Amino acid sequence: MNNLFFSLIILSLTTLSGYELQESYTYEHSTIYSTDLFPDISKKFEILKIPEDKTQYRLNAQIISKTFELNGIAVDTGKVRYVNFIQKSPVDFTPLKEQLETLLRGQYPSIRIENITITSRGYLPSLSQKSRGIFDENFFQNSKGTFYVVDEHGVRRYLDYSVRATVNVLHSNQKISRRDRLSGFNTHIKQVPFTSFKDTPLTTLPNEPSRFRSNLKAGQLLTLRNIESVPLVLKNEKVIVEVKNDTVIVEFGATATQEGLLYDIITIQKSDGKRVRAKVIGEHRVELQ
After folding, report:
1. What is the dihedral of CA 177, 183, 187, 192, to 10 degrees?
2. What pTM was computed for the model?
3. What is the mean pLDDT of the chain?
4. Which residues contact 26 (CB under 8 A, 6 or more apart)?
5. Going by DSSP bridges, is the β-strand pair 275-282/265-269 parallel, antiparallel, or unpaired?
């Protein structure tokens, strides 16, 4: 009987568990309920009342956790010590959402955006509809982040954004060896959730000939870090050597003993076996130094 009793207690505390407390929430009304923190929760009860003269309020996460526990619900507070409640701003963020969408489509033409959320880090009473967001240069690598706008007083106002979307990204479709050429035969497009990328992902094949920097597994997402341009001159490849003498240009054949990109200085070997230095000036072409 005792085992059954304790089992019922444990069940009551864990049935509705799995709720993770966030660091901040926005509110419209001063009385905060459980459903304001977790909209899908089945039990509604009061958490706290925020003073009417406050637009921001901070509360220890353990106090909130205890309130839920007393109502038979376990919440995860492992990632936060304090929870910030910020009064919802009356500002219409539609122009900023449209700006963000335009920027993302410029980076990912095939992106499918489901929703964009923008919230101010503090209470924002007003903002010009002409305000433009200032984003980090690599903002497009993450679906969540922070940016700022400058208000009419020249003050920076920081806001958080969150994007729910999917993007089409190139993946390897087979095992890749270092220096293999990138092509439609060893890659394919795959739709993935837009979450976080460690580097700029490849959404299409590059316009210029490219190759892989390292060995890769099949099914790996490809980024700019995975590829490099194919050198205009490859090692052990035949090249045309130009020798300029005033207005006369003499050409002869040689073998490259090094690979090189445009304007790189490499070593070549002439037909007599002598090695000399030359500058890459085009595809399979070098200029004697």
Report:
1. 120
2. 0.70
3. 90
4. 85, 86, 87, 88, 89, 119
5. antiparallel
